[in-house]
Structure formats: C-alpha cells, structure tokens
Amino acid sequence: MSHHNSNGGLPSSSELPALSLSILNVEPLDEFIREVADFIHHMISQRPKDLEGSVEVEAKVGLLVDKHTGMRLQLPVLTETILAPNSIECRFESNMSAQQHKHYNKLLNRLLEESSSKIGYGHLYLKDTFYDSGGRGGEKVRVTKDEKTNSVLACTRKIRLGDLNIYSPKRPADWRISVNFEVPVPHPTGTSTHTRRKDRISYTHEEFAIDLTQVSTSNSPSQSTLSHELEIEISRPEYLVDAAYARDGSGSEEGAAYDELIRAFVNNARIMVRNADGGEGAWG
Amino acid sequence: MSHHNSNGGLPSSSELPALSLSILNVEPLDEFIREVADFIHHMISQRPKDLEGSVEVEAKVGLLVDKHTGMRLQLPVLTETILAPNSIECRFESNMSAQQHKHYNKLLNRLLEESSSKIGYGHLYLKDTFYDSGGRGGEKVRVTKDEKTNSVLACTRKIRLGDLNIYSPKRPADWRISVNFEVPVPHPTGTSTHTRRKDRISYTHEEFAIDLTQVSTSNSPSQSTLSHELEIEISRPEYLVDAAYARDGSGSEEGAAYDELIRAFVNNARIMVRNADGGEGAWG
C-alpha cells in the first residue's frame, strides 16, 4: 500500500484521468427536483377549472416548528428531505431574524451591483387588508394597496392548492413550497379582519422574483407584530402553466422548459436557505 | 391570463430563453454528496495509524429493516436522505431477490456489450472462511480462497470504521456506505466459525468495481442460506487515501480529485438503487 506522502497513488494534475460522472456517463436524475416538479405539476392540474385566476408558486424560507415542543422540528436525518404531507404535526413559520434579513439584503444588493448578473430591483410599500370571503375553505379576500399612492393594486381571493415542507437539518432554516390559485374578485364590503403592511425589496432574475419583506401585522389599531420574510416566486404564472402542459407531450424541447424552470426555482431556494446563517461573508 | 392552448405563454423552441441555473449562475452544492465525502474523509483520518492496511469503501444495495417491526424502515419523508448515526433502531440487510439480481446482471451485461462503455468483467468463485481473531472489537479473520485453484488469495482482519445508512423511500431498495480498514494477517489456526461461498461477477469501470454476488453462508455442513448482494467498491484504496489527503491542501486540482471520485461513487450507487425494480426494462 502506498501512503499519501508517496508518489504511488495520486498522479499529478497533468496526468489525472478524467473521471466519468458514472458508469452510464450521466448524472442520475435529481429525485428531489423531480419530486418538486411532479408535485407542482399535479397542483396545477388540480386547480379550479371553473374560475379565472392564476397559479402562484412560491418558496418561503423559515422554520418548521414541532407543534408538541414548540421548537424547531428535529428528525433523525442528516440531509435535506421533503416531508410526507400530513405525516408530522408541525407548522411552518415564514420568519427570520432581523440580522438574517439584513444579511440577505447585503448579499442580494452585492449581486445587483455586479452588472453581469442582470438583476432587477424594486422597493415597494404595500398594505394588504383582509376580509372574510364567505367562500369555501374560509379563504380571505386580500385587498392590496400601494401605500404611497393609496391606489388599489389588486383584490384577490387566494385558494390554497398545496404545500411541500422541506426539512433542512444542515442549515439554520427550513423551507416550504406553496402553490395557490389566486382569483381576482370585486372589492369586498364589510369590516376587515386584519392588515399587513409590507416594506418589500423585490429582486427579479429571469423567471423569478426574490422578495425580501418586512411585515407588520395588525389585528387591532394598538397591536402589531413584526416579521421578516423571504420568498422566491415564479414570476409568470401563465408561462409556468403553459410549460407544465407542454411537459405532457414529453420529449419535445418545450417539454424540457418546465423541468428547467423548476430546477432553477429549487436551485434559487436552496441558495437562499444555505445563506441563512446571517454572517458577514459572501455567498456560501 | 393566457391558457395552455393560447400562444401567449410559451415561446416556440427556437425562441426559448436560455434559463440560468440559478441567480448565481451555478448549481448549489449537492449537500448529500458533500456529506458522504466529509464522512469518508473523516473515517480515513480515523483509521489505525499503527497498522499496515488499506481503506475499503463500499456501497451496498439492500434494505433498512426496523428492529421493532421486522419490516422495511418507514420514515415520514419523500426523498432519499442519510440517517443520523445511532438514531434509529434498524439493521441493514445486504440482500435482494433472485429476480432483482438477474435484472442487474442483464443491465450490466448489456452495458458490457456496448464497446464504448469500457467496462471490465470477471467471474470469480471464492470461498471465505472466518476465524475469531481474538482482537479488539471481536473482529473475524477472513481467509479468501479461489475455489478453482484452492489457492489462498488473502488473509485479512477487517476493522469496521463506520457506516452511513441511506433511506430511499422512492425506490425498492435502500443503501449503506461502509468504510473498513483491512489488515493483512498470517493464516489463522484453530477452528473456523463459518464459511461464505461466493459466485461473483465483477464489473469494473474506471475507479470502481461493481460486484454482483450470490452468497451461500454455512454455519454447519448441513445448513446454508443463500443471499444476493450488490456492492460498489472504490477499487484503489491508495488512490482514495492520497486523494483525500490532497483535498486538505484545498484549491488545487489534486484536491478536486477526491470530490470527483466520491461524486462518481455516489452517482453509481444511486443508479444501482434506482434500477432495483427487477423489471425487464432498460436503465432507469
């Protein structure tokens, strides 16, 4: 046996044999990304067909909290995995520390300054007011106003289609993928249940919006709670849905567009989760 | 909103914008492969330094069995993940059905016939006889003979360094990565405890051996049990160890060799696990 300090084992860099990716010369399919793609595809196919609306797909960074302990969920696994739906009593908290929020802000601003990265930027001040919709499932109607102009941007009923929770034991954050169906509705009447004021920085890149938001939620005029949210959203619902349908006629280049879209979506979410440490460093 | 049958959402293939892999234009690090690489690296550093021997790294395809139920382990997750060591009461059974074994044999033979794939092939008939070593940890000494020539190929004391169990809920098989330290020893005296006769087809590809083995284990002359095993082994322990040490002086091309080796090792194991369905089809 040769040792690490002998010259027997390791060729110098110029002699290194190029190693194939595998015995089949390809990377095996990423089953995590495939699971996410199949899930979103299924949710799209399950959306209400009798309503005009759009499919909203977003990944939120936060924590999975065990309902029994009130602490972050702990499972006996070492690497990121998707939880089986309805199998574990936990809730997802779409929140992070102010320090983490600031860290993301710095990282994303740095990316913005690099001209090559083609990132768009917008700073929005929004106020969401919620009303009972009286519809099935107890959904709320959300009225979104631009705080600066006080103009109504949208009145929407949001119908939850499904969620996937992703447990990420190596990182300081977990994440959730949510698929909702958003239906435009007339401005509601009656009394609102609560409001959410949002100070949002929205970074856009190709088909995605990365929204870093400070949210102040008020249930009464005298009480409000502050939270910090990070969401990655697929920007064009109609493109997503068309790509998902094109996937069914598989084998075509159009069919590959859906899987490429979901791959980039998952990659972006993972990059965000892996940079949730709130440190001062560069992208990890 | 445009619909899937409109022309609004999805450009034709010639117009498709090339989507970046992520906001950083790279794939995020595969944390599963990184975890395996760090684990094997740590095991290598923990090997006995006072003994001459070689580090054996292998992935075995089989089933994780819950010790309480006697059935395959079930966890509330949807995708492949590494179990935290000593957290779950389960054992790993390195076994499969004769049908699965035959299926792998067909798939690997087909690959062998494709001239471009550069696969080596050997058919070995081996007999392992085990003796108590009297050493620490109750290890056995294994004497391996070529059944055809009856010549002794090796006398080895195998010291277990560590295992990682990989739960694979989407597949009909789980897998385990084992790291052992094999020390050559003199031929033992005394009475053997048991024998294992191996009918092994060994496929080699670059730095790996894929061993498909039918094993007959005998504790007494009148009793034997048959099992079917599939193992992927890193062929050159000295190359592995040298590459692992070169990784420590990070940044160099030599340092990348270790991670490339482990990536191909994991890819090969995953490809095997994903083809454990025993069907008649091609590589999945």
UniProtKB/TrEMBL annotation, chains A, B:
Gene3D superfamilies: mRNA triphosphatase Cet1-like (3.20.100.10). Keywords: Hydrolase, mRNA capping, mRNA processing, Nucleus. This is mRNA-capping enzyme subunit beta. GO terms for biological process: 7-methylguanosine mRNA capping. One of its GO terms (cellular component) is mRNA capping enzyme complex. Heterodimer. The mRNA-capping enzyme is composed of two separate chains alpha and beta, respectively a mRNA guanylyltransferase and an mRNA 5'-triphosphate monophosphatase. Its cofactor is Mg(2+). The keyword Hydrolase applies. It is found in: Nucleus. The lineage of its organism: Eukaryota, Fungi, Dikarya, Basidiomycota, Agaricomycotina. Belongs to the fungal TPase family. It comes from the Eukaryota. It catalyses: a 5'-end triphospho-ribonucleoside in mRNA + H2O = a 5'-end diphospho-ribonucleoside in mRNA + phosphate + H(+). GO terms for molecular function: mRNA 5'-triphosphate monophosphatase activity; polynucleotide 5'-phosphatase activity. First step of mRNA capping. Converts the 5'-triphosphate end of a nascent mRNA chain into a diphosphate end. PANTHER family: POLYNUCLEOTIDE 5'-TRIPHOSPHATASE CTL1-RELATED, POLYNUCLEOTIDE 5'-TRIPHOSPHATASE-RELATED.
